[in-house]
What we know:
77% helix, globular
Amino acid sequence: MKGSHQQGGPLWVTIALASCAVLLAVSIVKSPGAAFEASLQGLTLWWRIVFPGLLPFLVLSQMLVAYGFVHALGTVLNPLLQKGLGAPGVAGWVLPFGLIAGFPAAAEASAQLYTTGRITARQAEKLAAAGHFCNPMLIIVVVGTGFLHKPGLGLLLAAVHGIAGIAAGLTLHKLILQSRKDLYQAGPEPVRTGTRLQQMVHSIEEARRLDGRSFGKLLGDTVASAVQTLMMIGGYMLIFAVVIRMIEYHIPGIGSTFILPGLLEVHLGSYAAGASSTSVPALQAALIGAILGFSGLCAYLQVRAVLRPVGIGTGGFLVTRILHGSYAYVLTLLLWKPLLKLFPGAAPVFGDISTDDRMRNSILQLPGWSQSFSLMEWQFITLLFITACLILFAIIWRFRSSVSH
């Protein structure tokens, strides 16, 4: 573990960040109305979509660990995870969990598995990178319905987003991080005897014994931790919404492009790409897919805030984000016409409406809590479906391996 002076970064970084903070404060004082409006838009998006969409899954992740479900699932997924990401099977649930819950759920889960000694620091870094996805509810509802007014396009973007993310994670492991040694060695995997079902039951019993918390204590701890994480996410969303608005306010013309919002914040960036003047629907959809895959500086800071305090690096995460965005861009262009046949009417119709006006209109159309609960039900069903598919695939993989030997 590095010292505190090293964690704080070089002096020039501190000076630069302090200068940016001063400039932002001066800009807010000079333009309080624009800052308040941007903050309100970020708060609305966080409260109506992100908070109800992520809270159940952040709580669920910690309860799955405490009750040993992830350890049981790991005994089944061990061959698949070792081949694909070089991680033990105990972490097999992180990938589908991140795909359904959205960021930074996978980073939270990876950090928790690392701190309990189940995986190494390098494995946690790769899992956090490979399991980093935008919440599908955000893509379908916020981007597809709220921003573009085309739910079918949201489904298309969500499908490409998932495929590109998995491909980026596999690429990171095979081409970049496979030859690098782990920084820390996790404890050895225990040798199991008996049938696969007996091993799963034993894993559950052992994990529950090691945790030891009652249900009331466990529920209170998980809810408190999840709310703390969501408050961090909300703070990032609000401050970056204000930063983008202040830059656009004081530098006229820069807000007409999607580059700045796309680099800083994923939701505002995808919206700006949809509001751009490009007349080719496939190209605009590809730009939105690239922004969703890259996730922006805001998402990186959220993941860094989770991983760095426990000693997990983020270099592989940045590489994966670039790969994810690139794959999503290319896949959207290649699969645009075939997927458009599966989602008829998904082609967007983009008008020449200003970014600010379109943002105001889409914020007003965001679903409330009742619609969010309905969508969370489908998220949970999808999580179970993906987990079941991974288990089935792992069983087939193990069966084929045993036959070949």
